[in-house]
Amino acid sequence: MGSALVGFGKAVPALVVANETLETLVDTSDEWIVTRTGIQSRHVAIEETNADLAEAAARDALGWTNGGFSERRFDASEIDLVVFATITPDTVCPSMAGLLRRRLGLENAIAFDVNAACTGFVYGTTIAESMMAACAPTSAGATGRNPIRRALVIGAERLTRLTNWADRNTCVLFGDGAGAAVLEWDETRPGIMGSFIVNQDDFANALSSPAAYDAPQPFNADGTLKEVPALLGAAEQGIDDELGVAELVGAGRPRQVLYMDGPKVFKFAAEAMTEAVNQVLSRANISLDDVACIIPHQANERIIKYAAKKLNRPMDFFQLSIAHTGNTSAASVPMALCDAYANGRINRGDKIILVAFGGGFTSGAVLYEA
Ligand code: UT7
What we know:
It is built from eleven helices and 16 strands. It is an alpha+beta fold. Helix 3 crosses helix 4. It is globular, with a radius of gyration of 21 Å.
């Protein structure tokens, strides 16, 4: 028995920005971006919010539209849990999960957000599965906890709101989108067979975004009032120091954007991806030979190539969606998963691995039987 993945959906914003457009913004070229990353274009949300994208993806996954891949139509009242993975929420309060719960009328759902950067969907799925395993009422009766039979797990980002469009090292990489999956506790299916999630300290400050809030404060440290309320105080300066961005911020760079040392993250990512795949296989006592395909985080095609070599598998063993999405952080794995169903590459009974890595550092993998 296990948590079966039974519904999938995705949504992207209307605006498509091709590499050629970025050539007019920063000193880059289509050729550099394609050969170094595999990205040709990305979607940028101008009129859509994160919640709009997530809602569209969720409606598909719940079988409320013909756009997704759902084993049946799920009623709003059947969803007991919403786990929403994002680092770019429209709101801090209510949570994005809470907003979605209201928009979709999920009156019985517990709802909360998860921040695990690009690994967010893998973390969210693992959390949902763990809660279902602990809380699903079985033939033996209730568990004494909130009953959770079905969960909606979302990965959705408006990452281009965190993007520094003057920085060619990062702005060519990111895009916006949302992906969703419905999990159902099923006593007749193996569903999720194993998971592995792990954190490592990002000692070298390879990936960060220092500012989450921006209400200016009226007080000095001694309690006197400032003439002009301002955000940047000793506490913010301390954070900037800790994240290694003080000098750049001092030089006028915004605090609310992503800072990344690409090569350092690349090195971590390439190792983390193969490690997570091997760990989840060993936890489930399954060989990679028994797996039909891997759905990896779409950060850079070269990271996937590196993993393919290490795992001794051809590139077509991996779902590749990056060319027209860029890196969409927590949305990347569920969007690629939806593409894999759309391409007809996943059949009932196939064993599938979802794998991701990202800021924090976080990394992890989920193995499930379709
Ligand atoms: O989602 C979570 C995590 N994110 C990732 O996993 C991203 C991991 N990192 C990467 O994917 C790659 O490191 C990047 C795509 C970000 C960069 O690729 P790279 O092959 O590691 O390039 P690099 O940073 O070593 O830069 C090589 C050269 C540099 O020029 P010099 O110093 O050799 O003259 C850069 O200034 O390429 C230059 N460069 C660019 N040139 C044209 C950097 N960005 C660009 C650009 N266009 N957009």
